Amino acid sequence: MDPQLSWVGPEPRGIASTITPTAGGTYTLVEEGNVENWEVYCPAEEKRVCSPYSDDGFAMYEFAFKDLKFRLPFSNLAAGVFGWLHLAPSQLHQNSLAFIRAFEILYEHGVQVTRRVAQFPLKWTRRHFDGSTDSYLTKDETLSKDERVGLDKLKKFVDSFKPTRYVTKAGAQALDSKGRPRFCQPARKDS
Q1: What is the pTM of this model?
Q2: 175: phi then psi, degrees, rounded to nearest 5
Q3: Domain of life here (predicted)?
């Protein structure tokens, strides 16, 4: 428990990383093509996802590279999100990483960053939490015409989500207190 990380919640500080070996050991496909600009290491037993690593190193969940297919260097969009939020990549919840990746696949046609530029923190920082919520919001009236079109596409996509059925561990439809089937409605608010 590093005292410099006392601002970090107990879960990331207290739970050791679990290394899940894949068929060939640690998953190492982190960049496109046959280039080798990045090295993959398993963290030492005493390290946590929020621990600082070397100056050029950072912790990252295997899930991001193996399942979401993120590749290094991160795209301008991903690096921009990490930088804007003042977060190390592993500091974002994995669902948020999945959203960034889905957005890249659906809408981004940008060029990947090919030079070494610190656009976001490589280690966990408190800076994100020191800012107000308003500093991360964008008002509709400040969007360009193209941004409004993209936002409308994204809203239409989210509106197309179907409610999810709740099921029991046995796979049967879960019921509410009145015996009606339970559903999780997709939540979206226009603001």
Answers
A1: 0.54
A2: -115, 150
A3: Eukaryota
